[in-house]
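pasting for ref
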Amino acid sequence: MFQTGVLILTSPAHHIINKVSTYLASAKQLISNRLYIKIEPNFNQFRNQTKIPTSPASEYQLLLNLIPTIYAQASKACSHLDVRVLQTFAKTTNPIENVSTKLDIILIDNLVKTEDVSSYFKQSFSTECSIIRHLNVNDSNSTSVDEYSKFFNDEGPIEMYGNTVLGGTFDHLHNGHKIFLSAAVLRTKRQLVVGVTDGAMLKKKILWELIKPIDQRISALKEFLTDIDPTISYNIVPIYDPFGPSIEVPGYDCIIVTEETLKGGYRVNEERKKRNMPELKIYKIPVLSDPERNAFEELKISSSSLRMRSLGTLIQYPKPKPHLLNSPYIIGVTGGIASGKSAIVKHLQQLGAAVVDCDRLSHKSYEPKSKLYNQIVEEFGKDIVNLDGFINRKALGVKVFGNENLRRKLNNLVWPEVIRMADEEIKQHAKKGVSIIVMEVALLLEAGWEDKVHQVWVCIIPEKEAIKRIRERDGLSEEQALQRINSQMSNKERVDRANVIFCSFWEPEYTVSQVNKAWDQLQKFLTS
């Protein structure tokens, strides 16, 4: 198996377009990471045109339609591969391809001589590669062109523009993004400006806490765009409002939008009109349906769905902790108020984990016969004690809530005792031969107990859902519920320090599927 390769397609466009899925299925048997596709049908006679003609026989038009078809088929045939269609065939000059990743193998779609392929490759790519394989496809395994006819341009010649602009979040660059970006590149002669959503606008997105940092998203975009066409200039910038640079520069010619963001294109032109700028030509790209979606995800391929699929998976490899024994393996489960962590821990227990409930241990530390009882009463007053002698935790909570000094004093008393009792329970489980222990700790990260566990598993839910649950469970007002949430570490802070993330926002069966996925992957991790 090779990490990266290039597939050179030299057959006529009408042949290739019917064989795309078969080529991809063959290529995925050899490539594990990234597959570049070089379309080389020798249509040099069209390269000097400003507009790409639809004749003769619409062959060049069909050639351009190969690009969305390849990405659409890649989502079905090899979704694990990073497929990138090189687009310099549509340019006046055919530059040397300087792709960002070292190539391990050359794949070719017909039986030409190996020495001819080697000679062509040296002329076309600035990289060394000596391994060449031919892909022979079965004529019976063809894809109907009509299946992706919605991507085909039947409006006549394709207009090309000097400067184009588009925007998006571009998290987890997927095949839908690639169709969108490729359409923009094909229609750009000089510069493509890309606005990348950041800041407060991200909070409207599903699982926004999992969105990659802006510098990583910009870097991934730059690499992809430069890979597919290095002949034009790219200006990729963060944007913090719906418009970005599209309403700032008069010299833009065209804005590329999707079916879902078409209204945004109209709003851009409204704003430009207010500023006495010429309207932009609006070019609309269809969205790509997702063949792998489940009942909880969007119909289209989207970053939101990809973030949902990361739930229950190892998103950050655990750091070595040589001070901890390899067995039992300890998972620290934490999360904000009403995040559903207790239900998740209960399911982990059903799967076979032993549980150390630090909330229960915290309650135990308040009991009259505990070591801390007298210290707590002395520090916070006898008025927190009920007639039966037990500490009224609600009364104590009222005293410390909103008072950082008192809260710190209480934590400094309780936390050391809780971790001592937790250590005792862990030792008891270890003596019984337990291999996996789940330690449920609401304030695991706040207490700095990450070094007590091998991995940190975090439960999150959107703020609105947390408010709703707190109000229903505790009878609090919306303002009181929000105060409780704001007094805690944010979901984003927890996510940044997590190895695995769960979200219980959707139906319980979806949460259970996340836990099952995490448990299965943990078993493989521990036996690898």
